[in-house]
Structures are given as C-alpha cells and as structure tokens.
Write a structure and sequence with these properties.
The protein is an all-alpha fold. It is about 55% helix and about 0% strand. The two termini are about 20 Å apart.
C-alpha cells in the first residue's frame, strides 16, 4: 500500500471511528495540567481504570506541585501501591514536582522540549499533556493500543513508538493527530484486543487487512 492509499485508508478509519466514539478524549480523570501529567505518568503499563481509582483521593491529598514535592516518599508510595511500578513512579512524581516548583513556578511546561526533560516523561506522556491539557498539537501519543492497531491496519510496520509516531504524522493531517491517538486507543480497548480481537463486531472488518486473521 503506497502512502496516498494508506493516507486515504487512515482517513476512512478515523471517519468511521468518530461515529462510534464521538467524544474521543483521554479517559484519565483530571481537572488541570498537573493532574493530567501525574495521571499519565501513573498510567504507564497500567490501566486508566486503575489510575482513576486512586487519583481523586491522591489529588485531594496533594493538590499542588509543592505538595507532591514535599510529600514523604514512603507515604506517597503507600498511596500508589495498587499501581504497577509504584515505587519508581512515586520517585519520578516527587522529582517532577520538585522541578516544577523551583524551575516553573509550580506550572506544568507547555512545550515538548521542556516536558520530555522531566523524569519519567517521554513523548507519549508529553503529547497527552499538550493535547489534552493545553490544546497544543505537537505530535501523536503512541501507546500499546496505537502500536497494535497501526500495525494491524497497515499504517506502519514499525514497533518503535517514535517511528510509529512519525509514520502516522506523515499520513494524517495535523488537525487529526489528536483523533488518531484517542480513537485508536478507545477502539483498542473496546474491540481490537491484543489477544482474540472482536473482529466480528468491528466496524472496520471490511477494510482491515488483519481482520479475522489473528
């Protein structure tokens, strides 16, 4: 499939998915960029559902970057213990918020360059914070769902998130970059599972090259 055909295929996929997920956005609960940043850091190799179970009480206990920066690390770990890799994440969150407090007046940076310098923050997290927290589109957030669906649908043959992001950015209009991520993530969670995808009920099964083959 050449780039023009692949781009048309991606457009078709997005238009169909918009009908199934008309309000596509991150499912992480948050009220401001700081909460979104913390929630996204916690969501790495964890489900949004598990993160959403703890963040309301977490953000009530630590409402500001200063509160996280000053948190007792053992107590913070205890608050995060139901999340995978909670010790590493607690350490990174404390470091992140210390940097935010002293270098950014407790504000979350709104550029990719500054965000990816924070501990535990890579392009996926930065893209989510920028697009969902600030309305700034700088790239496409690539997680396991985007990786899986992009390969199954023929948008890329790469496995590396950075390369997948570049492939998708070449195919989609910039105005659709946020939708590419959110729609593929939602469809991956609802239908296109890693094991035994529900191809029978998928609205893409007539165009997906991997339909009924996994």
């Amino acid at each position: 499939m050449n780039d023009i055909k692949t781009a048309k295929m991606l457009y078709l996929v997005l238009e169909r998915l918009k009908t199934q997920y008309p309000s596509a956005k991150t499912e992480l609960l948050h009220q401001n960029p700081l909460e979104l940043l913390i929630a996204t850091v916690l969501s790495a190799q964890a489900t949004d559902v598990s993160v959403n179970k703890i963040t309301p009480s977490l953000f009530k206990k630590y409402p500001t970057a200063k509160d996280f920066a000053n948190a007792d690390i053992s107590e913070l770990q205890e608050n995060l213990k139901t999340i995978n890799f909670y010790k590493t994440k607690a350490s990174n969150i404390k470091k992140i918020c210390t940097i935010l407090e002293f270098e950014f007046h407790s504000n979350v940076p709104n550029t990719m360059e500054l965000l990816v310098k924070l501990p535990g923050v890579a392009r996926k997290t930065a893209n989510i914070v920028l697009s969902e927290g600030y309305g700034i589109i700088d790239g496409i957030a690539v997680d396991t769902h985007v990786t899986r669906l992009s390969n199954r649908l023929g948008f890329t043959t790469n496995k590396d998130p950075k390369k997948i992001e570049q492939d998708l950015m070449k195919l989609a209009q910039k105005t659709e970059w946020r939708n590419v991520s959110n729609l593929l993530i939602l469809h991956g969670r609802a239908i296109c599972f890693a094991k035994s995808p529900n191809c029978k009920d998928c609205l893409l099964n007539d165009v997906c090259p991997s339909a009924f083959k996994i």
